[in-house]
Amino acid sequence: MPPVTVVLSLTLLTILLTVSPSIAWRPWPNMKHNSSEYIYGNSKKYEGSSEFVHMKYHMGPVLTANITVHPIWYGTWLKSQKRIIREFINSISAVESKRPSVAGWWKTVQLYTDQTGANISRTVRLGQEKNDRFYSHGKSLTRLSVQSVIKSHVTARSKPLPINPKGGLYLLLTSTDVYVQDFCGQVCGFHYFTFPSIVGYTLPYAWVGNSAKLCPGVCAYPFAVPQYMPGLKAVKSPNGDVGVDGMISVIAHEIAELATNPLVNAWYAGPDPVAPVEIADLCEGIYGTGGGGSYTGQLLDGEDGATYNMNGIRRRFLVQWVWNHVVNYCTGPNALDQ
Ligand SMILES: *[C@@H]1O[C@H](CO)[C@@H](O)[C@H](O)[C@H]1NC(C)=O
Ligand SMILES: *[C@@H]1O[C@H](CO)[C@@H](O)[C@H](O)[C@H]1NC(C)=O
Ligand SMILES: *[C@@H]1O[C@H](CO)[C@@H](O)[C@H](O)[C@H]1NC(C)=O
Question: So which residues are the signal peptide here (predicted)?
Answer without folding.
Answer: 1-24
